[in-house]
Amino acid sequence: MECVFGLVGNGFAIVAADTSAVHSILVHKSNEDKIIILDSHKLIAASGEPGDRVQFTEYIQKNVALYQFRNGIPLTTVAAANFTRGELATALRKNPSFVNILLAGYDKETGPSLYYIDYIATLHKVEKGAFGYGSYFSLSMMDRHFHSGMSVEEAIDLVDKCILEIRSRLVVAPPNFVIKIVDKDGAREYAWRESVKEAVAA
Amino acid sequence: MKLDTSGLESAAPLFGVTSELVDGFSSAPSFELPVTTDFDGFQKEAIQMVKPARGTTTLAFIFKEGVMVAADSRASMGGYISSQSVKKIIEINPYMLGTMAGGAADCQFWHRNLGIKCRLHELANKRRISVTGASKLLANILYSYRGMGLSVGTMIAGWDETGPGLYYVDSEGGRLKGTRFSVGSGSPYAYGVLDSGYRYDLSIEEAAELARRAIYHATFRDGASGGVASVYYVGPNGWKKLSGDDVGELHYKYYPVMPSTVEQEMVEVAGA
User: Fold this and answer.
1) Which of A60-74, B27-41, B233-247 has the lowest mean pLDDT?
2) d(C-alpha A161, C-alpha A154), whole Å
3) A201/B200 CB distance under 8 A
4) In chain B, which residue's Cα lies nearest the Cα of A19?
5) Of B36, B37, B56, B261, which one is the catalytic site residue?
6) What pLDDT, on a 0 to 100 scale, did the predictor assign at position A25?
7) pLDDT: is B57 or B44 the higher one?
8) Rounded to an integer, what is the distance from CA B244 to the centroid of its chain?
9) Between chains, do B188 and A26 touch, taking CB under 8 Å as contact?
10) % of chain A with per-residue pLDDT over 70
11) Mainly resides where (chain B) (predicted)?
12) Residues B225/B55, Cβ–Cβ less than 8 Å
């Protein structure tokens, strides 16, 4: 089952997601990147039905880019989050998208922020959030060890603690995770945590 | 079981008032329901019966020389084998192949449709479409029909300017880029053999043998897979069919019958 979680630290926001693409009992691949870079300073970590996840997040990504082209300035994180929620809500009564989203971003004026958007278009600004079966373990871990203004090292340590807990306690634990960070220097991949190496074509 | 005769009873009023108005409204619209104790369960079972199970084994993997694609050839409807000679590897164009798992009609139609779109792209842009582009076209089409009962589990394998490409696309709208995939009811069996024998630097013959062996093992254990194991190779000059072997014959090739010592012999009993 898909595990996505994230938290806000001192001048940065960090999100981690599992990387397995599963179809009933089969793992089709274990290096599927589920954290999309929305623009230079925003990340979307998405979990949910495979088709919906990719199609919906790409739709948001292209619309955010369009706004920037039309208006010359990028959307703020709060605006992007509200736009995403609005699109989910509009689709909800006709053809709902079963995607749960954690939107992390950094704005020059307001600093880092994290938004929790679930598949029925709930929107919350949070300091830490999680989706999936992994949330049962990572939420309490984060509640216990989180304090506002954590440094990158402390936050990575907490993320690793959560990954370890998920790996040891969840019966269908995903083996690999990807961690991405967004701060004043932009949104980028931070690290992979792999326990099963996928054979990659050289 | 008491027969339900409510349908036979007339809904007309007892005393003989005949008026056109009453006659028009007298019988409520109805249809016969199947006589069961558990109608909801019956409905679920009926839906499951028509839901096509992906009774097949297909696989594809990228290696140093290109892409190897293989599939079985059995079509089954529940417990009945309807055909042992179905072409499950569909030739989209001379350098791209698609595999079929799920509903045969859905796969054949949409692959043909994809071939048309790829050709239109070539004519409009004066260059071949990439495997990425072709698989995205198919994924978008299938996504727009999601929830409407299409059953397609396909892999798009091809060779384009960036080299070999392999994508898994299904009717739920999922699209995955990867180096090794197997789709169908026999896929877990095929994955085991494929994963343990896979190396990136296989030669073409070794890769073909790995693909053939994986399909054979899947057909051995999975009842819904069988027939002929076809193996195709996609290289820089397009695809080429390498072999099509009956899996029964493959069985005796891999596990030939050894003469073994007899444990007990039947002895003729001298006249009663």
Assistant:
1) B27-41
2) 11
3) yes
4) B176
5) B56
6) 84
7) B57
8) 18
9) yes
10) 98
11) cytoplasm
12) yes
What's the predicted TM-score (pTM) here? 0.80
B34 contacts: CB under 8 Å, gap ≥ 6: B42
For residue B66, the model assigns a pLDDT of: 95
Which amino acid type is present at position B42?
F
Which residue type, as a one-letter code, is found at position A104? A
Residue B22: what pLDDT? 47
Nearest to A29 among B63, B173, B178 (CB): B178
Closest CA to B186 of B151, B217, B232, B229: B217
Residues A11 and A183: beta-carbon distance below 8 Å: yes
The pLDDT mean for chain B works out to 86
Which site among A20, A24, A25, A29 would you substitute to test the B interface, given the most B Cβ atoms closer than 10 Å to its Cβ?
A29
User: B58 an active-site residue?
Assistant: no
Contacts of B188 in chain A (CB under 8 A): 25-26
Interface test with B, best of A19, A25, A55, A58 (most B CBs within 10 A): A55
**Nearest chain A residue (CA) to B64:** A201
Tens of pLDDT, residues B71-104: 999 988 878 888 899 999 999 989 999 998 988 8
Chain A positions touching B178 (Cβ under 8 A) are 28-29
Q: List chain B residues with CB under 8 Å of A52.
A: 173
Q: Do A28 and B176 touch (CB under 8 A)?
A: yes
pLDDT digits (tens, 9 = 90+) for A39-78: 999 999 999 988 899 999 999 999 999 999 999 999 999 9
Q: Do the chains contact at B172 and A54, CB–CB below 8 Å?
A: no
End-to-end CA distance of chain B: 58
Q: How far is CA B220 from CA A46, A175, B80, B100, in A?
A: 39, 30, 17, 20
User: Which is it for the CA torsion A49, A50, A55, A58, positive or negative?
Assistant: positive
User: Which chain B residue has its CA at the smallest distance from A21's CA?
Assistant: B176
